[in-house]
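Case study B.
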Amino acid sequence: MSAKHFINDATTLVSTALQSLTLTNPTVALDAEHKIVYRRPTNGEKQVSILSGGGSGHEPSFAGMVGPGMLSAAVAGSIFASPSAEQVRVGITSRVDPDKGILVVVMNYTGDILNFGMAVEKAKAAGSSVEMVVVGDDVGVGRAKAGKVGRRGIAGTVLVLKIAGALAAQGRSLAEVAKVARLVSDNIVSVGASLEHVHVPGRSADSSDGLALGEVEIGMGIHNEPGSARAKLDLPQLVDRMLTQLLDQSDKDRAFVNVNSNEVVLLINNLGGVSVLEMGGITAEVVSQLGSKHNIKPVRIISGTFMTSLNGLGFSITLLNVVNTDIGGPSMIELLDAPSEVQGWSAPIQKTTWEAKNEATRTGNTSVGQEVKPSGLKMDPAVEKTAITTALERVIAAEPEITRYDTVVGDGDCGIGLKRGAEAVLKHLSSKPLTGDVVVDVASIVPVIENTMDGTSGALYAIFFNALVLALRTLSPGEANAQTWATALQQSCEALSKYTPARPGDRTLVDALYPFVDVLNTSGDLTKAAEAALKAAEETKGMQASLGRAVYVGGSGHEEVPDPGAWGLAVFFLGLAGLKPADDGWEKI
Ligand SMILES: *[C@@H]1O[C@H](CO)[C@@H](O)[C@H](O)[C@H]1NC(C)=O
Ligand SMILES: *[C@@H]1O[C@H](CO)[C@@H](O)[C@H](O)[C@H]1NC(C)=O
Ligand SMILES: *[C@@H]1O[C@H](CO)[C@@H](O)[C@H](O)[C@H]1NC(C)=O
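Model:
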């Protein structure tokens, strides 16, 4: 468990967190002395007031649920401790509108039942119209083991608050709101699982929660209460166990609710410390097993952070068995879908969207738009093939050398990457002969480069060659000569420069590329251009890298070897001209 916190004083933590709600939501106010967050009075229609609360540490429950469509007030205790009866009494008698009656919803914990219960009795004695509904949705600990303690309330409580809150907002009577709240409470089951206990800010850190790496506690409560079992389970096994606890009607120790409605709501709740990414994976697993093993296809699937255990590394699964509310009015689903303006509830997908059940997909041919039309820019395919094949073979032969350079200044994968690309293009050429239409020929090589070369240089090559195809097309039709290539390459360099800040002098492949293109343009001579690239590649020796991984490698390697990317490209250009590097410049192959 992590005992690291930004706020270590538990009192400050709770009071500032409550205050923050008034900062981020203008509809709520705070009675700081009694730790009550309540809806500011308005001139709107009167409605039944709903009050809830409990220990802090379960945010956004409960203060984050205060606002139009949900709670009228929430009373907070200190972390994991019930508020006092006096706090609750103040909440009931003077922080909510009593005119249409007050519903108090409380989770089944001894302290909460006593303190909220005492306050309810006092308010009733004083003439208020108050009803109390107790939620105990947790099936984590079965009847035998729970004994007199009974079922605790966990995340399912939020569904009770949401549905009752929506009904109250519609102006229904206290009797109706209380009835529906009880009905929801009677039809929800939840179970949690955690990978470790949580640390309470301000308390001494006890790191021995006994959970080993890979071990999970099923049914752990939201205050570190022990669950029913600890085991080493992977996610599918864990979800299987949890769903069995929720649904198995033959388990006499549980079987609290028979989930048999044709409308079931699934709530997957983050206990506070699970990454959003992992919550996604958990949700997918739960939905998959509900369907395949229990034939349940929820009509609403809600996944998010609703009732936490501080930064608990766990989650809970809640199922609501939707039943008829029998009040001649909105269904549970409609109430769940109804709008609310609170920070702690989010079910962003609308009723109409769920019910549309749109299952359309896009299955269009992924190759469309990739086909290349002939350009009429011609070159002798035999000449093309010899030049490219020689150049690629030279790159493959130079792999050990390039790898050695990259081991000194980079992460050592440059040579292998170039070799892989070169081999793939050679293989492609052997199965798909060049046509002599240079646009078609270059374009056919582009996907091979894209699919085999990865990393930054792969992306740079891909951009460069795509730009080359476009540039060559603008120069078509005609006979492709050195001038055509130089112009097209120049345009490709320009395109490349939009996506990388690399310029000559930065110790990248650009150091070999630019001189090649320039000299080809001015001289029209491939050999001279390749020679210029070789010279420039050699001159990268001693240059400091200002881009790419080589920057982080540091050391003095850059004094000893040329940039491997620039070197590889120079070898390729020499190969195009039928040359290879030699001790003193180059020699004919
Ligand atoms: C709450 O717990 C008590 C025991 O303390 C138990 O008798 C009761 O059934 C529980 N209530 C709910 C709603 O689960
Ligand atoms: C997809 O489109 C490509 C190019 O237009 C075509 O060659 C191929 O046959 C199409 N494939 C299918 C499955 O339609
Ligand atoms: C390419 O060469 C021609 C002369 O052959 C010159 O006019 C032109 O400016 C050169 N282009 C670039 C970008 O250097």
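The longest helix spans residues 455-474. The remaining cases will be described in the next quarterly update.
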